[in-house]
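User: Fold both of these, please.

Assistant: Here is the first one.
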Amino acid sequence: MIPTPPPREWTDRKAIFQSPEMVFRTTLVDWMHNQSDEALRKHVKALRIIAIDPGGTTGWSIMTVNYHEITKFGIATHKLVDTWQHGQVDCGARSGNIKDDADSNDYDLGREEIGEAAGVFVLENIIRHNAPAAVVVEDFVLDMRRANKSRDLLSPVRISARLDQLLWELRVTTRHSQMPSSAKTAITDDRLERWGMYVGSQSDRHARDADRHALLFLRDIRGNQKKIDAAFPAVVEARRRGLIR
């Protein structure tokens, strides 16, 4: 007995994405080409940055910026932000770090990996509702001097991997990594307080860390046309149509 060849739509990537059953079919290129000039003009006035600080309690932050403003050097980073939302998602069975975690709702997920999947599901929903966007995810480097043997040590790695799969499937985002030390060194608590962006208490630190990553990313691309184009391909399309300079 020999195995039967699988249908082409099972394994052929092109066939998969052409299938009407596919949930994720729109590429960033397709999205841009399907936008009217008016819609594209509106989009470049509210470019989105989504920052994720993955862990047992995952912080997220969404900031919108105007393309015409971020091409300038003279404006302070925090003043480039037009709208801002942030929060935290429980990605553990018994995280207990946020008010709406599994325990407080009498919904113990029981296993850490199940809690991570449920948490990433919420993060996916946030990303879907705000795509297309530049998605910034905090990178993770294992420090062997401080490493422990608990499963939650690698929780950020597993969550990032789940998000990477989503971003590849969704294909209406650009993905960027940043080191945690860079964000905390550049965007300190003192700086957030001076900018009026230090919100909440110690329990909200993961949301603030996501804010740091969004602000650091914005500071890094500000005034750099090459980096802006890489982060927001819709800008390139708008320029190609003569909608912006």
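And the second sequence with its predicted structure:
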Amino acid sequence: MNFACIARFALWIALTSAAFGQQKSAPNTTQGQPQRPAQDTVGRSYPGSYTPGSRVVRTRTEAGDRELIAETVEVPGPDGRFQTSTKTITETVGVGSNPVKIKREVYGNGAAYRALSLIETSVADKEKFPDGTSRTTTNAWAPDLSGRLNLSYRQIEETKPLGPDVQQTETTLYVPSINEPLRESERVLKTERRVSPYLVHTDTQRKDRDANGQWQTTETRDQDVRTVGPGEVVEEETVRNLDGDKKLTVSEKTITHWSTNNGSDQVVTEVYSPYRPGFVPEPGNPLLLNARIRVTTTPTANGGSQTISETEAPDPAVLNGPTRLVSRTVETVRQIGPDVWETQRQTFTLDGSGRLVLTTEDKGTSKGR
């Protein structure tokens, strides 16, 4: 069990964040688009396929220091009509103050389309202290077969300054065990250091318990973020994981280049790995290019934008084949009314003949702020 598994819940979370905002890695260049709309609605369809469509509805309300976000994922039921598959309610109390409490409840109806029932609930308490330290304690519960809620994990994240240019974040995960209610099972220590005005270095170490209950470093990440010029930033991250001999070896390297030119933002990410089907690394150069992702965001009239994302990777249909364009996504955001924005997103992927064809289409609106 790791942090990624805990955080992952709804497949559509990624869709809603992508459909109503810029790509995560791309700087926001447009003005006027609602960053926190009062209501989002997005529908997904699959042109040329018998796969049924789906829909996400997300609403946000505010009252004083309280914010309530409700998100429902709807899919066609047995009768073909949309039915709620999952519903997530997130309540934040203390917005803009200290401390802050965030309660999240997730409901689902299972494959039989029964009435919604609670799948998971969590409460996160965030607090800042006078010395600059901040701590977030998250407790999560899940129902057992009898419907009784049991604590499923506890996560404590503490960030503190170690100096004027150094910040450290320690995240600890506790899970129930046979002999004790909660047992520390994972530690992640992240240290961020500003080396110069143009360079920030971050190193991350993850430790897990081995079969004997001893702590062992299972992953490290080294990241450098450099400002190389006006509107130009380069990030390099190297990941090391345990190999078959229990030694930390390079498993992935990512290089991301942000730049701005003539009002357009471009992000180019290259992912390198020792593993690529049909290829053998050269001596002294153990990493091979596995993917190149290019995201270009261009502002349009009335504060809108167009984002084109293209992925180059080895052709899956050709053994030892060259790197080629394997997918393209075009997202357009435009204003269609006072405080109303429309997002259209089309995704093209390779078909059996190696041609890019439209496979997924999303269309939605954002209302209010």
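Confidence is low (pLDDT under 50) at residues 1-31.
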